[in-house]
Amino acid sequence: MNNNALQALTERIALEYFQRPFQHRAYFNSRLRTTGGRYLLGSHDIEVNPKQYVAFGEAALVDIIKHELCHYYLHLDGKGYQHRDKDFKCLSQQVGAPRFCTPIQSYESRANYVYQCQSCHARYMRIRKVNTLRMRCGKCGGKLVDITNKDK
Ligand SMILES: [Zn+2]
Ligand SMILES: [Zn+2]
Predict the structure, then answer these.
(1) Is S-adenosyl-L-methionine set as a keyword in this record (predicted)?
(2) Residue ranges for the binding site for Zn(2+)?
(3) Which of 36, 72, 103, 152 is the most exposed, having the fewest neighbouring CB atoms within 10 Å of its CB?
């Protein structure tokens, strides 16, 4: 799934669920952390978190896009486009979109690296890469090994 495919998917969802064209841009932004997507008030573009796609597949993308399109059309129409607004609640219900931008992933599914202690075999999950020369096992002080790819 690349940006072109995401754009095409967004245009299709707009026509299918909102019966309106999507005339701005939709693209992946890997810097999004806790939200699945974001609607930009200034440019009217929609950003999508690629990790949601990797973790949960296309169904998650459809949910995110529907949700962001609710923000998009309500904002363009000058209606209540925020989560707490009545217009937003109505529209998101109509199109079957989740009420919030999230799902915020659990720590476990956000973890990109897995380390294991060579002595006691305790496992540690980390979002960022750690220096295994410096970080030691919290239980026994043993040496940690990166087992990220062996684990998947
Ligand atoms: Zn939202
Ligand atoms: Zn240990």
Answers:
(1) no
(2) 67, 71
(3) 152
Nearest ligand atom owner, CA of 41: 1
Q: Which residue numbers are catalytic?
A: 68
Ligand nearest to the CA of 124: 2
Neighbours of ion ligand 2 (CB under 5 A): 117, 119-120, 122, 137, 139-140, 142
- The reported pTM is 0.68
Residue range 16-59, pLDDT digits in tens: 999 999 999 999 998 887 788 999 999 999 999 888 787 777 88
77 and 35, same structural domain?
Answer: yes
The reply to whether 16 and 82 lie within a common domain is yes
- pLDDT tens digit string along 87-122? 999 999 999 988 776 554 555 566 788 899 999 999
Report the CATH number at residue 17: 3.30.2010.10
The boundaries of the domain holding residue 136 are 107-146
